[in-house]
Structures are given as C-alpha cells and as structure tokens.
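Reproducibility note. Readers wishing to regenerate the assembly model reported in the main text can use the exact inputs given here. Chain order matters: entities are listed in the order in which they were concatenated for prediction.
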Amino acid sequence: MKLAIVGASGAVGHELLGVLEKSSLNFSELRLYASPRSAGSILECRGQKITVEVMPEGAIDADVILASAGGGISKTQAPIWAAAGAVVIDNSSAFRYEDTVPLVVPEINGDVLLESDWKAGGIIANPNCTTAILVMALEPLHKAFGIKRAIVSTYQATSGAGAKGMQELEQQTRNSLEGKPVVNEVFAHPIVFNLIPHIDAFLDNGYTKEEMKVLWETHKIMRAPQIKLSCTAVRIPTMRAHSEAVTLELERPATPQAARALLEAAAGVDVVDDPATKRYPMPLTASGKYNIEVGRIRSSLVFDGGLDLFICGDQLLKGAALNAVQIAEYLQQHNKI
Amino acid sequence: MKLAIVGASGAVGHELLGVLEKSSLNFSELRLYASPRSAGSILECRGQKITVEVMPEGAIDADVILASAGGGISKTQAPIWAAAGAVVIDNSSAFRYEDTVPLVVPEINGDVLLESDWKAGGIIANPNCTTAILVMALEPLHKAFGIKRAIVSTYQATSGAGAKGMQELEQQTRNSLEGKPVVNEVFAHPIVFNLIPHIDAFLDNGYTKEEMKVLWETHKIMRAPQIKLSCTAVRIPTMRAHSEAVTLELERPATPQAARALLEAAAGVDVVDDPATKRYPMPLTASGKYNIEVGRIRSSLVFDGGLDLFICGDQLLKGAALNAVQIAEYLQQHNKI
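Running the prediction on these inputs yields the following structure tokens for the assembly.
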C-alpha cells in the first residue's frame, strides 16, 4: 500500500508522522507533499529520511492519501486524486457535509466504511477537531441514556489554527512580557492573556461556522439528528488540546457513577475525575495523549437526571492526525485498502 | 463620613483606591489597613498620600469599612467592626448566605438597603465576582422574558485569586518561555498555557464552591430562587476580566434584537455585538472598564425562544471594587450613611 501525506510540513502533518511511527498500519512507501515553500526539507518516519516534495498538480501515485493542506487544496485536488483511484482521508471541512462522503470516527461509526457505496467518491472526511473529541464522550452516554439536549462551551488551543497559531501566541507572549507591541495576523485579535469568542466565519444565524460544525458533525457521526445542540466556541491562550464544558439533558436519568463506568469502558476515553486528588481534564495532561480525558462528571442542576462534564483532548491527535490514521487502520483491518 | 479600607494593599484594595479617586462618594477621612507585611507603605487617593497601617485587633474608627482582606479576617473582625457602629461592606463570602445580611448589586437589588431591618447586623455582602458580572446581564432579560434555566461556563482570570494569581501566571510564563521549571503555589496546577476546571473547594455534589456560589448568589440577588442554574467554573491564563458563555431557557420567547435593545438600555452594561466588525466581549476590551460587555447574542439552538450570549466583565471592578463603592454611594444617596 502506497501512502502519501499532503500538507506534511504543517502542525497536523507533523503529528501524522508521529502517529504513523507508532501505528501498525502497513505501507510499502510513504511520500510527503507540501507547498513549494516547504519542499526540500527532510522528515523522518520509521527510520527513513523522506524529502518533502512539491504537491503535483494532477493525480498522486498513492493508494491512500492523508490530506491536511487546507480546505482550498482539498476542494480542488481531492476529487482528482480520488478519480485516479486513491482513497483520500481528508482533514478539511470541504466534503464533510456531502451525503456521499462518510464522516468517520472509527470507534463510533467506522462501520459506515464497510458499506459498499461510500467508495464511489473515494473521499472520507476526518471530522472537525472539537467534534471528534466531543463525540468520543457523548456516544457511550447517548447509547445508554439517549441525549436530548447538549450545551457545549469550548476552550480551544491556538494550534487549532495550525503551527502558525502557536507561533503567534508564543511571539505575542514574548512581546507582551518585554513591553513590546503585540501584533496579530493569524487571529482576529491578540490572543496573549486574552480570549476570542470567534473561530471560523460568522453565519447569518449569529453562530460561527465552528459552532455549527459541532452541531452538523455530531448529528452525522452519531447518526442522531434529533439531538438539540448549542455550542459557543472560544479560542484561549493555550498551545494544544481543546477543552469543552458540556451539559446534557437525557431521555433516561443517569447517575455520575453510571456515566463514569460507561466512559471507563469506552475505547479511546480516559476518565480523569478525582477531585480529592485534584485530577480532572486539562490541556497539561491531555496534550500528546491519544485518549481523550473526561471528568468533572456530576448530576446536572438544570436537567433532572442529566449530567455536567468536562472534556479535554489533543485536537491535533484524536481531533486530526490520530483519527485519520485510525481510519486508514480500520480500512486495512477490513481489507478495504 | 469616615471611610476605611481593610486589605488596601491587595488587588481589590488597589482597585478600590482607583474607583474612589473617580467616585462622587463624600468622605472626610480615608484610612488604609493591611497586614503587618504591607503596613508602612504609602498609597495615594484624591491627591493625599496615606500611610498603610496595621489592622487593629478590635474596633476601627470608621463609619464605613470596605473589607477585602479575605474570608478569615472578615469572619472574625466584621462583627466586631459592625458592633462598634460601622457599616461593613464585605468582599468575602463569609456572610453572603446569611438571611440577615443583604447581598447587593445596586442596579439590581439596591432597594433592599432601604428596608429598615438590614442595619441590625451592620454588614452588607459584596457578591462573588463571577455572579456580579452575570446578574448584570441576566436581570434585564429575566424581567422581560422570565429565565427558567441558565447554563453558564466561565473563563476566569488569574487575578480572581488576587495579585499573587497574576504574578504566578507572569512568572510561569517567563519560565516557560525560557525553558525553566514552572512552579505553582497559588493554583492547583501550572496555569501557563493551561486551564484548570477547579476554582475554590470541591463540594459533595461534585460542583466547586465557586460554581455553587453562582447559583446561590444569583438566586439571592435577583430574588429568583426558581431559576435553575448550572455552572462550570474554569481558570484560564488571562490577567483580568472574567468571561462567561451563557445559554438561557425563557418563559416567554425572546429575539436577539429584543434582548440587545433591553441590554443596551440597562445601566452598567455595554452591548458589544457586531460580528461584521469582529466586535464581541473580550478581556482585552473589558479590562479596566466599569461596564460589563455582552455580545454574541443569538437564538438558542436547544431552547425554542431561548438565547445564547457571551459576557465579559472586569471582575476586580464590577466583580469587586466598583460594586463595593457603588453600594457605599447608594447608601449615601439615600442618607443611610
């Protein structure tokens, strides 16, 4: 199986190489593509030094392409790559809402990849990072208790905007401490010692696209369009790992104990929930970790039998690179590639 | 009127002097008290240099005492000061939940100070900072539409833990950028490039005391114990101004337009809500400002006719020092001091 990464020099590309290093995915060849600016640099994976090449204009000679070079490139190139026979696992939002494109978190709806019709398009969408982390915690609770309403407030890291987001936070922090002017290019406002309740574009209903992605993608991945969900998406001055405060109204009453037991048994989830020893989900502990952290699990004070909880997950891993590689692993395990 | 500040050298004490500088409050004398460590330093207010004195053990010769030296000192000293005839405006949580102690945000329930019985105890409680900011936005909406449920997620600044909280964030940030070890004393974990979903002590129901304060104090200040409210309180690496994401279920349906008009007309509130020009509440714009900012006002996606909004307010001002001085001003305007 020939594997290619497009966008190899970005923040997600960097994580893809790290995840592939430890993955059991079998591939005979790995080629790395990026923009002309990054081409020529040498990256390493599984003991091999690989020179980053300029992304070709047409087809790519690969069986599986992990695409993470932004929505614009995916939009024009992914159909070309797929038409030439590749399976494209696309990290952008370009195809996520098309009925014929599966949007997959393998632990939750990997089985849609076993249906015969998805391969028509050849493109599989990797979810929005905030959503991927969220559904990992919601799915086990939904199966057991039936989620009616979910209210989500996010605390999103600067690396959600890529490596340049982290660099901007670091530079602004240095300048701020030295009393120098703080300049913002990546974010709409300075992010150092600030927060910005604005991620992605504003839509006509007053929500941002990031906030609506969480609704749209939760519905599609969990196959539960009946869930009412509202999100407030906020950028905060952290480097990586997104956190989410979640309040749930449930069809059937839940206890924190029962929720904890279900989440402890769920693949890809760590219950980090011991107030006595000051253990709860935090970017400090969730960064670099494959599993998402869930904690602060308690009975809701607004919905009888409902739950409040706090989630933190590395959005560059489960929210992007890890999930993409897990999709490829799932396909290989089921002989689909 | 003789005025005294206890805890003059702390973060709130510093703000009290700044607010008094611009306030119309009439006083003939201002005395400043602090711990022996800070005594002897010289602070300025209204052109006068005032030497900080060690807080005496017994009564203080003042008509009004603004107390901001922590719950322990308030608990033992405020009753002594009040018994000697002073009106104590106490910034701690020590007396907030006593039936005989008014808990006041003047714009909302200043009228309780006009009732005859409150002066029995002589103590007036200044609310929790997160709550004071929240109720400024909720009260106009509650009057018009009747709030049934409120879900609140907070983004709280390090200065909520006093000047030492800000110093810890700054020191940790310097160390982090220089690759030196990060040490935490004020907060339970490092706060630099992190968040901590834990403010104040954990209670048996899994909520923190900070989270329950928001419920208890909203009920008392708004005189609306029927509101169901759930809060997740999170410390983030900002210096000052607390933010809050709020989802509201209402008795009577509201439009964002109607909510905006009501909040624009409310004293102490600035509507900052123009996505087209990237204007929304942020610590960057709310810090140092008397009015709280409300924005991101939009129709709820989980409650028909409900609202989602985002609030940011300087918790050292409206959440502490400003509100305390406003209580004193209210008393003076109504000839109660």
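We highlight two features of this model. Residues 129-145 of chain B form the longest helix (17 residues). Chain B has a mean pLDDT of 96.
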